[in-house]
Each structure stands twice: as C-alpha cells, then as structure tokens.
Amino acid sequence: ADGTADARTPRIEAAAPDGAAPSVQSVVAGSAPAVVLVTARGEGAGGSLGSGFLVDRRGRVLTNAHVVDDDATVTVTFDDGTESPAEVLGKDQSTDLAVLRVERVPAGVAPLPLGRSADLVVGDPVIAIGNPFGLERT
Fold it and tell me: What's the average model confidence in pLDDT over 98-119?
C-alpha cells in the first residue's frame, strides 16, 4: 500500500469507449465517495470549511491550506456521513495546498488518482465536485 493507483482505484477516463466524454453523472458516481468535507475549528471562535479528496489508501487527503490552521482541530466527513478526526501532515501557503491524514476511511472508499497537467489540452471538459462553504455535493 504505497499510495499508488491499483486495480481498486477508480479510473476516471477522458473519454468513453465510443470516444464520447463520460457523463457528469458517471464521473460524480465514481468520484463522490472519495470527496470530503473538511471542518477546521481553531482554539478561538470560528472555524472554516472546505473540500478535499482521498489520495491514497493510507488515509491521506488533499485540501487547501487556507482551510486548516496549525492549531485547528480538523474533522473530515465522507460522502456517506462518516466522520473521522484528521491530522495536518503539512501545508504550503504558496500553492494553497495541505495534506491531512484521517484515522479511518469508510469501507469501499477508493482514493482518486491525481491527474497530470501535461495530459490536458485547453478546452478539455472539467467537472468540479466539492463542498464549498459547507454546501455538500455542489
């Protein structure tokens, strides 16, 4: 379990077998279980919400750095409602990325593969799935 894609990792193909783009519904159905809501609560008043997604079988989640503070208590909520405490493994303000590790991943939830920008062409369709401002599955 080194975090690389394997036969159990869903493959989101650029095109269906007939050459057509996959439907939004099929992409959401295959990806949504690994998309999470990230809730961070600081020691003072307030907190923040954001989106993230499971990137490997060791429970690592990629999210935005602006969502998590160093002193925040972070909770990740999966598509099925399962909540898990998360540890901030690291973050980079310059790229606004953070990596978390959740204590448990619900059974059957497969990580999403990271894409390569070199494989993209201007005009390729894009589908965003997330929980902006706590609005689930938007």
Answer: 92
Residue identified by tokens 């609560």 is: 41
Residue 82 has pLDDT above 90, yes or no: yes
HEC per residue, the chain: CCCCCCCCCCCCCCCCCCCCCCCHHHHHHHHHHHEEEEEEECCCCCEEEEEEEECCCCCEEEECHHHCCCCCEEEEECCCCCEEEEEEEEEECCCCEEEEEECCCCCCCCCCCCCCHHHCCCCCCCCCCCCHHHCCCC
- Whether 4 has a pLDDT exceeding 50, the answer reads no
113 near 11, Cβ under 8 Å? yes
pTM above 0.85, yes or no: no
The predicted structure's pLDDT at residue 114: 86
58 beta partners: none
Backbone conformation region of residue 31, classed left if phi is above 0, alpha if psi is from -120 to 50, else beta: alpha
* Cα of 16 vs its chain's centroid, Å: 23
